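Submission checklist for the structure archive. All mandatory fields must be present; incomplete records are returned to the submitter.

[x] Identifier: Persulfide dioxygenase ETHE1, mitochondrial
[x] Organism: Branchiostoma belcheri
[x] Residue count: 282
[x] Sequence attached
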Amino acid sequence: MASAGRRALAGLWRSVSSAKRCRTELRPSPFLLHCRGLCNATGETRQDSSGLVFRQLFDQTSFTYTYVLGDRESGECVLIDPVIEMVDRDTRVISELGLRLTYALNTHVHADHVTGTGELKKRAGVKSVIARVSKAVADVHVDEGDTVKFGRFELEVRSTPGHTDGCLTFVLRDHGKAFTGDALLIRGCGRTDFQQGDPGRLYDSVHGKILSLADDTQLYPAHDYTGQTVTTVAEEKKFNPRLTKPKAEFVQLMNELNLPYPRLIDKAVPANLVCGLQDLMK
């Protein structure tokens, strides 16, 4: 009888051990988790009780996030930081959501991709928007304190220079969201070594115009390279390894990065200065 009991316990132990091994073997790899993050970024549509429609889209070549913000009641929407190669996708998504694009916004003159605003302007009723100080071609030039309206909603324009001199952050205050471009990334920030970049100005911009928002404000960057999709003011004030440093240390760190220039900078910047309408460059 004792022998039978021991055999039963041994069998049970083998079953438990096998289950543990299966759980270990099926644990997703870091790469799989990264890919899941990218997939989630391109597939989620949110609509809250106010009728705000929100979609985050992703370009895997330039690691750029593009954002659709729409008003369900009026059907009007805006697009933030479109990429030229993804214009067909963007317009298809907007159509499928039953929305009508009125403004295509750029957070700054990008150096790593050509903006899609030039192509989008060929659609009737679409106007391009960029910072006045950028000196780039656009239908609408905006400054600190301006607003961009779509239906019943509006984005507040905040000037956040430092990565470039014309960087903007768009704040959807009543819904606790801000679109930070390259000024503030998730656990990072944009580089400051070209296009009139200045680490001291960037530090002041981020702390004065972005991290001064409510702690629970969701922050959506123009890029991410690790599969993350969103952060908050509270998280960045606590965990951002660069911007939690004193200003002098931050400036020194940024000045010593010695990063290679973006691969497409010689094509992207001239094109983006003319709203992505490359025929104007000829």
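[x] Structure attached
Curator remark: The longest strand covers residues 52-59. Residues 12-41 have pLDDT under 50 and may be disordered.
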